[in-house]
Every structure is written in C-alpha cells, then in structure tokens.
TrEMBL record:
Membrane topology: Multi-pass membrane protein
Any single GO CC term annotated in Swiss-Prot or TrEMBL for this entry: plasma membrane
Lineage: Bacteria, Bacillati, Actinomycetota, Actinomycetes, Micrococcales
Pfam families: CbiQ
Keyword Flavoprotein included in the entry's annotation: no
Highest taxon, organism lineage: Bacteria
Transmembrane segments: 43-64, 71-91
Stated name of the protein: Biotin transport system permease protein
Subcellular location: Membrane
Keywords: Membrane, Transmembrane, Transmembrane helix
Naturally occurring in which organism (per UniProt): Microbacterium hydrocarbonoxydans
InterPro entries: ABC/ECF_trnsptr_transmembrane
Amino acid sequence: MIQTYIPGRSVVHRMPATAKLALFALLALAVTAYPHDAASIGMALAGVCALYLVSGIPFATLIVEVWRLRWLILVLGVGLWVFVSPLTAWISTARVVALVLLATLLTLTTRMESLLRVLHRLLTPLGRFGIDPRTVSMTIALALTMVPTVARFSTEVRDAASARGIRLRIRWIVPLLVRTLRHADDVGDALAARGLV
C-alpha cells in the first residue's frame, strides 16, 4: 500500500487524528457549503495553501500537488468559463482544488493506521445495523489516499507520452486506467497479506 505520509513535528502532525479529521471535515464543509464569491473562495484557497506551510510540508510539495491537478483545473475551468460564466468557473474550480488539497494534506500529515483507528471508532455504531465498520473505514481511508495517487499516475502518464513525442487525447485514459487497476491489485494483495480482507 502506498503511504503518502510525510513525517514532521508541526502542530498539524502532532494534532490527534480525531481532532484533525474533525477539523478537516469542517473546513471541507465550509468550502463546499458556504456561498462563496470571487474574493472569499480565493481566501479559502489561500488558507488551504497556508495550512501546507503551517504543517511544515515543503513548498515544492504544494506546487507538485497543484501541478498534478492542472488538467482538472483546465478542463473544469475552461468548460465552466465557456458554458456558464467566468465567475462560476473560478469559484467552482477553486472549490474543487481546495477540497482535493485538503484531502491530500490529511494523508500527508496523518499515518494511515491512525486514520483507520479514528474512522473505525466513528463507524462502530453502524455495526448494529449490519454494517462492518472496519470495511467502511478501510474504504474511506483508501479513497482519501487514492486522490493524490491517481493524480500522480495521471501526471506520469502524460509526462511519459510527452517524452516520447506522443500527443495524448482521449487515449490517455487507457494507460491511466491500467496503472490505476494495477495499483488496486497491489493494494488488494497487500491487504490480503495483512489479513485485512
């Protein structure tokens, strides 16, 4: 299983996983639910970027994470700009980028084991309804870690094609799917080896 955690001694690293997950969930809710205008969504995005610096994550890592989202930004931004309005394009694109960066920061500053323990505790009451909290918590944790992983795969596929002088169109989806499915198989094998599935 790919571990995206970056060790550190910042206040964000040292924050208990329960409090951190609750804080990040509230921040994500605020970014999503608040009726943003052009200025407020810019401030929200800047605040998320500032959290990276407070966390002691290298600035280069933040740049890399934003760069990995360039195609999402381009497709979503241009599509909304053309079909809706420039303001909607800015607000919606910045909102999505802020949410992805928040999810990535959570995985960069929290060990997977800690995240799984917190999610398992929170989901334990669902056991009385026949839902396995361990399975659900594992699914949520894997979904969070897959956000930066798939973004990295996308970047690597496009960079490899560019190095070979290949112009990618819709066909770039195929190698991306192959890498993603291969990674899913590796994760499944790792979980099975640990007796988690």
